[in-house]
Amino acid sequence: MRKINIFDTTLRDGEQSAGVNLNLHEKLEIARQLERLGVDIIEAGFPAASKGDFQAVQAIAQTVRNCSVTGLSRSVQSDIDAAWEALKDGAEPRLHVFIATSPIHMQYKLRMTPEQVIETAVESVRYAKKYFPIVQWSAEDACRSDLPFLATIIERVIEAGANVINIPDTVGYITPKQYGDIFSFLKKNVRNIEKINLSAHCHDDLGMAVANSLAAIEAGATQIEGTINGIGERAGNAAIEEVAVALYIRKDYYQAETGLNLQEIKRTSNLVSKLTGMIVPPNKAIVGKNAFAHESGIHQDGVLKEKTTYEIISPQLVGVQSNSMVLGKHSGRHAFRTRIQELGYALTEEEVNRLFVRFKDLADKKKDITDDDLIALILDEKLDT
Ligand code: KIV
Ligand code: ZN
Questions:
Q1: Whose CA is nearest to atom 5 of ligand 1?
Q2: Which protein residues touch ligand 1 with a CB less than 6 Å away?
Q3: Residues 316, 297 contacting (CB under 8 angstroms)
Q4: Do the interacting molecules here have an ipTM over 0.90?
Q5: b/e sequence 318-342, b meaning 16+ C-beta within 10 Å
Q6: What residues have CB less than 8 Å from 37, skipping those under 6 apart?
Q7: Neighbour count for residue 308 (Cβ, 10 Å)
Q8: d(Cα 65, Cα 51) in Å, to the nearest integer?
Q9: Which of 35, 243, 248, 252 has the most neighbouring CB atoms within 10 Å?
Q10: pTM for the full model?
């Protein structure tokens, strides 16, 4: 099995979600939980962005011992200096330095020629290596960049000492096949690429961040970047829990694994949701409230007979206590009878059948039937008989 490093950017790209602002204590609490989850790298913030960000990155670097802590930096010396000050006490300080490489970004945002971008990138990596044992270099908007240019600049920053090369799909534009092809192209055309870690960083504008990350793994990426619950700028980043569980459940196919302690996933998701105020949609894969809930009678009957009929992931794998049978108008007699028994009522088959008719009537008028609704129905039925 190939080991895939997990680079968590919940506290940096995740915090860039509109409306999210975490204070130092909240960031520390999330960082400690990410350490329990077993991520390899925590991107704790952007030290030069503000005093608050600097202090949070520093506190996390000084606290977390089992992960490498990193901070983001533009390709300017003052950012790199600030990042070193914040990160130097970390267990394994690393810098994440970036510059844009797409024609759109170079022309309109940076107002630099491609040659100037190469020069600046090389200079920033050389400067960073004076401090940092590990330097990750990112080509912002890599997926809209000219591929031969991307290969050239990557070769140059590797020569300058970069240890990790990240290929961000900054605007969530790429498709899985195309993203995999970029990794294959770089592996074929960049000298010494086998000496560094190749990283994928995907945004979800077209809903393909996780699929793209998995395609990158197939094409040789050794690091995946993402956030818990997929939070992040605009439509968010690749959801780490989805990538990790996909690799685990389909290890037959991917032949790759993360070092995550998967049982910590639900707890981490709950914490991030609570502290950021970003609600997890009920149908969200792995961590949504409905991810292990069965409503239709056919599914409920199948799961009650044998879980794997409709559950490819055991809820306990990701720290969820159990699956649930939601009683509603699609539910069948099997789940209905089971729930009555779980509530402690021993009814005859005839009573169950009569009650089932009344339950269906009620379910036509009301979305979810709660235990209280069921108990009321049972007591009413008992009074009638
Ligand atoms: O999406 C992006 O390009 C980024 C970089 C700063 C790595 O977040
Ligand atoms: Zn990003």
A1: 140
A2: 13, 72, 98, 138, 140, 166, 168, 170, 201, 203
A3: no
A4: yes
A5: bbbeebebbbbbebbbbbbbebbee
A6: 260, 261, 264, 265, 268
A7: 9
A8: 23
A9: 243
A10: 0.96
